[in-house]
């Protein structure tokens, strides 16, 4: 009897230990998002840095628990390269108990998900924990990540405007908060009248930022919302220095927020265990064995299985994107990529330290260099300018979109580099540069006979068709122009530069933006004037490009006496004068009566693409069919865009030589921030 009682006591003790151990393992919820930085050196288990980090994390709860300022804290431990710098921040509306509870989860989980990195950041709903071996106090870090769900609001335009106004108001409030004990946090809500919806939002900066830095950090992230998360009902954007969130349901009421930890049944107390043992002593030995041993063994097996599952789930390696990152909410839509990441030294060696001799071209985004990788492969290296206001957005767009797209008429992305403030994309090298290098040059255009030009037109059309309809994603390019059409060694066309591109969700046919981007002369009027874009706005750009290939003229360089005329207006006028005048449109360096019908048909298709009425323009599927089959009867084009009547009733859309102003269009101003370039060759 005594032996069985001792055995029962030992089993209960083992059960208690396992319950406590398993509770500690299962009580750790996943981060909403985390980053593990690999470029600051490796962290090994027995290193001095690891010891300093463990000491700091183990004492952190008691340090902050005794501080009046529990919502933001920074502390260091160690010296020189083994020094650990740590920042801790709770959301501004969170109670102290919930804040410290979130801290305990973070300090246990972050070293586990980032075991080999000296710099890591983890975000929960309520808090952020960050540590590094480099100085991070008072230094704004603008590396960012956005997550959102798949649901969309009813009135996207109004919702975007209301959300933007609310965010800007909160930004000013949060940035103006000062004082060591005050958190740079602001929250509020606004109503969206059309859908009887409300939007709830908060913004927050770390306390070590100045008012100007906080303003800048939040302003940059707010400006990305229309491009990353247009019209979605829930959005979060993270940086190590600031963060923001909006939702159509309340989430920041400090009186009713729930703890992020999972609720667990408490382990059996010593009193309960003692009572159980006393009860066991009054029973027979066989009853004790059945009542205690069998359930205990079953529980042990169950708990061990649970622990093994948790352990292996934790051991799974996170996906790579820019830096290692994690995300836990099932309704968020994050699409990581698996593109090769180059280190900066490899890029430096490939370009001979960004030698001017290796420069291929330059645009508003930065400079493109020719490079040679260690394996001998020639590549085009696109280095985004640090001064570009939209650089982060363009980099993210190209990396996320182009890495998923595979088509013979799209430039192929080979990899990227994101180190020490550099944003670099590595593409396949295309030896014949871009289309504008040929068609607008009086000598080089002689190399493009009609057959080559027609092959280029077909290639561009097939590439656009793939973007609009045939790929897994529906992409609107938004900046199709001659300088963004690259040519390989066989003069096959490849569409490039997806920095301005937008992704459409399934069944979405149009979108709108407050930030008009693109190039003068190529933008459809509904987009340039009102920010409305669709596949038909790309069709318009294709139409302009087709007319440029046929005519050899850029928009705005057709001289008619003392006037400079828009290519669309000039072509429309000649077309309306009759077929004899249509030959005046064609580049005479290649014109031959042998191809007269084919050339005329292309001009006809170009005018169909640039019609003023969006609904009248064909889709790219129809355009490809028109190009490939002469049996398809072409409709009569209606009035082209940007064509007006002068006082004499003549068609006109030009300006006098020497007069200032845009020759093609005027963009809206005020609330709509324009980002528009002039069509100069690279």
UniProtKB/TrEMBL annotation:
Residues 354-633 form the Protein kinase domain. It comes from the Eukaryota. ATP binds at residue 382. It catalyses: L-threonyl-[protein] + ATP = O-phospho-L-threonyl-[protein] + ADP + H(+); L-seryl-[protein] + ATP = O-phospho-L-seryl-[protein] + ADP + H(+). GO terms for molecular function: ATP binding; protein serine/threonine kinase activity. Residues 1-27 form the signal peptide. Keywords: ATP-binding, Glycoprotein, Kinase, Membrane, Nucleotide-binding, Phosphoprotein, Receptor, Repeat, Serine/threonine-protein kinase, Signal, Transferase, Transmembrane, Transmembrane helix. InterPro entries: GNK2, GNK2_sf, Kinase-like_dom_sf, Prot_kinase_dom, Protein_kinase_ATP_BS, Ser-Thr/Tyr_kinase_cat_dom, Ser/Thr_kinase_AS. GO terms for biological process: response to oxidative stress. Residues 663-675 have a biased composition (Polar residues). It is a single-pass membrane protein. Pfam families: PK_Tyr_Ser-Thr, Stress-antifung. Residues 662-682 are annotated as: Disordered. It is found in: Membrane. The keyword Cell division does not apply. Residues 31-136, 141-251 form the Gnk2-homologous domain. GO terms for cellular component: plasma membrane. The chain crosses the membrane at residues 289-312. The keyword Signal applies. Coiled coil: none annotated. PANTHER family: CYSTEINE-RICH RECEPTOR-LIKE PROTEIN KINASE 29 (PTHR27002:SF1073), RECEPTOR-LIKE SERINE/THREONINE-PROTEIN KINASE SD1-8 (PTHR27002). This is Cysteine-rich receptor-like protein kinase.
């Amino acid at each position: 009897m005594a032996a069985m009682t001792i055995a029962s006591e030992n089993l209960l003790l083992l059960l208690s230990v396992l319950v406590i151990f398993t509770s500690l393992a299962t009580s750790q919820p996943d981060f909403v998002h985390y980053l593990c930085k690999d470029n600051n050196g490796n962290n090994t288990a027995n290193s001095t840095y690891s010891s300093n980090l463990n000491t700091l994390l183990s004492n952190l709860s008691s340090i902050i628990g005794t501080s009046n300022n529990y919502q933001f804290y920074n502390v260091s431990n160690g010296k020189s390269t083994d020094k650990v710098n740590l920042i801790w921040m709770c959301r501004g509306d969170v109670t102290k108990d919930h804040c410290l509870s979130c801290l305990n989860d973070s300090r246990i989980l972050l070293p586990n998900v980032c075991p080999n990195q000296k710099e890591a950041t983890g975000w929960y709903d309520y808090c952020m924990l960050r540590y590094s071996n480099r100085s991070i106090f008072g230094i704004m870090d603008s590396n960012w990540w956005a997550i959102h769900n798949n649901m969309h609001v009813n009135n996207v335009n109004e919702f975007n405007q209301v959300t933007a106004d609310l965010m800007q108001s909160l930004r000013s409030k949060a940035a103006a908060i000062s004082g060591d004990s005050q958190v740079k946090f602001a929250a509020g809500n606004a109503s969206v009248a059309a859908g009887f919806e409300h939007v709830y939002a908060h913004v927050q900066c770390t306390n070590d930022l100045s008012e100007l830095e906080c303003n800048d950090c939040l302003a940059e992230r707010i400006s990305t919302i229309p491009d990353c998360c247009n019209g979605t009902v829930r959005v979060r954007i993270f940086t190590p220095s600031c963060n923001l969130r909006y939702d159509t349901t309340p989430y920041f009421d400090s009186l009713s927020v729930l703890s992020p930890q999972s609720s667990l049944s408490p382990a059996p107390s010593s009193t309960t265990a003692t009572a159980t043992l006393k009860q066991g002593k009054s029973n027979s030995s066989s009853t004790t064995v059945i009542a205690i041993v069998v359930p205990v063994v079953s529980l042990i097996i169950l708990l061990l299985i649970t622990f093994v599952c948790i352990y292996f789930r934790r051991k799974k390696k996170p996906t790579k994107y820019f830096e290692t990152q994690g995300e836990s909410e099932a309704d968020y839509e994050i699409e990581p990529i698996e593109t090769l990441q180059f280190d900066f030294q490899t890029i430096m060696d490939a370009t001979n330290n960004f030698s001017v001799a290796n420069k291929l071209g330059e645009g508003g985004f930065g400079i493109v260099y020719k490079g040679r990788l260690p394996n001998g492969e020639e590549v085009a290296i696109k280095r985004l300018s640090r001064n570009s206001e939209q650089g982060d957005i363009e980099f993210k767009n190209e990396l996320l979109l182009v890495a998923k797209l595979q088509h013979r008429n799209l430039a192929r992305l080979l990899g990227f580099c994101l180190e020490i403030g550099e944003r670099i994309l590595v593409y396949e090298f295309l030896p014949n540069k871009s289309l504008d290098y040929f068609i607008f040059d009086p000598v080089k255009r002689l190399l493009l006979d009609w057959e080559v030009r027609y092959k280029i037109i077909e290639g561009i059309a097939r590439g656009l068709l793939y973007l609009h309809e045939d790929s897994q994603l529906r992409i609107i390019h938004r900046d199709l122009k001659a300088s963004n059409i690259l040519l390989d060694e066989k003069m096959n066309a490849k569409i490039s530069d997806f920095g301005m591109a937008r992704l459409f969700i399934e069944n979405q046919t149009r979108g709108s933006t407050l930030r008009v981007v693109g190039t003068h002369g190529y933008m459809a009027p509904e987009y340039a004037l009102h920010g409305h874009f669709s596949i038909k706005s790309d069709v318009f750009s294709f139409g302009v490009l087709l007319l440029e290939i046929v005519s050899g003229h850029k928009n705005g360089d057709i001289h008619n006496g003392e006037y400079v005329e828009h290519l669309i207006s000039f072509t429309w006028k000649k077309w309306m004068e009759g077929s004899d005048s249509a030959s005046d449109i064609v580049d005479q360096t290649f014109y031959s009566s042998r191809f007269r019908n084919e050339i005329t048909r292309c001009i006809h298709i170009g005018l169909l693409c640039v019609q003023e009425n969006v609904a009248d323009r064909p889709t790219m599927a129809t355009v490809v069919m028109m190009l490939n089959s002469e049996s398809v009867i072409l409709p009569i084009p209606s009035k082209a865009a940007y064509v007006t009547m002068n006082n004499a009733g003549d068609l006109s859309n030009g300006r006098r030589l020497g007069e200032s102003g845009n020759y093609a269009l005027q963009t809206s101003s005020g609330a709509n921030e324009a980002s528009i370039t002039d069509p100069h060759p690279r």
